[in-house]
Amino acid sequence: MSGGFVATFVRSARIIALSLALVMIPRLALAQSPWERAANNLALTFTGPLARSLALVAIVIGGLMFMFGEAGAKRQISGIVFGGGLALFAAQFLLWLF
């Protein structure tokens, strides 16, 4: 009688283990590592609203320099435009490149 009980218990344990494995496989496939989440947050910080705000401030300062005839203002403004463009569109540039 105890042999039948053990066999039934082992069979039930296998079925439960297989069921749990099948339920957990999609969760493991869709899981993100903490490094991916941190990298995405960092990319959003550098290409999101912070970069837009800094680019806007830099353009205003460059415009004021150009308005008051500061030497090298055109060079500064062109650097601001190219630098701001690279900062704002870095993610799209990498997607285009690769």
Q: How many individual domains?
A: 2
Computed over alpha carbons, the radius of gyration is 29 Å
Tell me the helix content.
over 70%
How much beta, percentage-wise? under 5%
Q: Determine the mean pLDDT.
A: 81
Note the run of SSEs as H and E. HHHHH
Shape call: rod-shaped
Measured distance between first and last alpha carbons: 66 Å
> Strand pairing plus helix content: what structural class?
mainly alpha
Q: Could you name the ranges where pLDDT drops below 50 across 5 or more consecutive residues?
A: none
Description:
With 98 residues, the protein is mainly α. It has two domains: 1-31; 34-98. The chain contains five helices and no strands. The protein has helices at residues 2-30, 34-47, 49-67, 73-88, 90-97. The termini are far apart. The model has no long low-confidence stretch (mean pLDDT 81).
Give the key terms.
98 residues; mainly alpha
Quick synopsis:
By secondary structure, the protein is mostly helical.
SSE topology sketch:
Blueprint: H1 2-30, H2 34-47, H3 49-67, H4 73-88, H5 90-97
Helix pairs in contact: 2-3, 3-4
